[in-house]
Amino acid sequence: MKTVSLKTEYESLLCGCETPFSDYPRPQLRRDSYLCLNGLWDFSVENRNNKGVPVYNGKILVPFVPESRISGVMRALNEGEVMRYKRIFTLDPEFIKERVILHIGACDQIAEVYINGIAVGVNIGGYNSFSYDITDKLCSGENELMIIAWDDLDKELPYGKQTLKRGGMWYTKISGIWQTVWLESVCDNYIEKICITPDLKGVDIEIFGGEDEKTLIFEGREYRVNGGKFRLDVENPINWTPDTPHLYNFTVISGNDRVDSYFALRTVEIKDNTILLNGEPIFMHGLLDQGYFSDGIFLPATSKGYEDDILRMKKCGFNTLRKHIKAEPDIFYYYCDKYGMLVWQDFINSGKYSFLLDTALPTLFLKKGVTHKASPFRRRGFLSAAYKIIDSLYNHPSVIYYTVFNEGWGQFDADNCYETLKSKDPTRIFDTASGWFKPKKSDVESEHIYFKPIRLSGRKKPLVLSEYGGYSYRVEGHIFNLDKNYGYKSFKTQAEFENALISLFENELVGAIENGLCGAIYTQLSDVEDETNGLLTYDRAVLKVDPDRLKKSADMLYSAFRKKFSQKD
Fold this sequence. Notes:
Blueprint: E1 35-36, E2 39-47, E3 50-62, E4 81-90, E5 99-104, E6 107-108, E7 110-115, E8 118-124, E9 130-133, E10 142-150, E11 162-163, E12 171-172, E13 176-177, E14 181-186, E15 191-198, E16 202-209, E17 213-218, E18 221-226, E19 229-233, E20 248-254, E21 257-263, E22 268-271, E23 274-277, E24 280-281, E25 284-289, H1 304-315, E26 320-323, H2 330-339, E27 342-346, H3 355-364, H4 376-393, E28 399-406, H5 414-424, E29 429-434, E30 445-449, E31 463-469, E32 471-473, E33 489-491, H6 494-514, E34 517-523, H7 547-568
Helix pairs in contact: 1-2, 6-7
């Protein structure tokens, strides 16, 4: 099988950059205290049973995974091996306040963390951020941070689309650090977290940690906050929508601590089998977004890769991205907030996959009465990862919808999972089973259609087409796998591909909208490895469609949706 290493334009921005992905990692809780530890680290791969004998010894560019080319390693981790990351850092005395917190954006799958040889913690799970107070482990002068990580692709833990034998709709397994590692220094009694719950007139803000008496600064006015809860009403409110993604900035001061944040005014609800944004019916015209890049695999070479994906899809008329079985760094969701891109966020699957049970039979006819067994450990791991996603994304106005299980992959005890997760965040829509294996409890009716015409009619719940399309067009010079191709319908020319896509929108989706369709997610935003069914090539170098033509088609869909509701009124 012959594969090609595809470079992106973002890699040129790394040349001479000592600290990649240096964007402030937490846009909704910003402090002036920030030391990014990304960059070149000492790196070795060792046998887990004989850690003193490295089988690889060199450098790695953090935060890129060793499997990626731009990490400088380009080596897969084998079962039974561990990675040892080491970084020496010195803290300026002016940086240190009272406490120093170490943050690790994500490390797949298990990480042990040491400061100056002293263990500070172990994290299990490859998609969540974690942090430790390392104040008491620091010394004057140089300090050593070491992270020992391993990833045997334990399917009892959430793993997404990673596989040991990539191909088709399954992708390269990644391991180790894949998000920013950074330090901040805070006072003893610091603000730990802010929760923001908006409506159309203001926000309810809950502040965790800090002094009992705080000051909130908003639009030049100061408000006294006693305790942790505060209601802020906004004069002449501007509601957040994909067309008007207005963000409001505010600051909280607590003793010697000061944090900057932002919010938006929007609501999401269901009424009369329709999803409402700010009390108005909205058609969600979206794309499946896997979040894979040909340069860094789990990350683009720079955050501009995220920004450009969002802006290019907005230019094509789309207002929604379904983040498919992967979570992203906070900067991705910030760009969605900023530019007005709705997000459907999937939780991360665990458990073994069966092609027959999870894909073939449901595609033909079997869509009910199936569930998988799950050990107590897998149940806890899945729900824990889902809780962390909900917690980390709670303040982002762009995130309006969660997918619990996709096509039955690892699906277990779906009704109880819905109730548990919905109670964690009742402000969002929950799709319990995207595609098939229908549970009793879900906020929507969710269908996948690939190999037949789209013919849908209204249900007792809002109807969404959470996957469809998958049309393949290979652009010469931008193909990852020269020998194999994966897609659901292939086209030889750009014109044929674009015409088929427009026909799908205008001749099939419009009819479904008239019959009650609220949202549709086309597969997909970009090519990924063998898959060539993206609107963008895997290297993001070629947009395969005319954005103006797609924008006109999108406007036709939005118009059909508005017409349906104007007639209903």
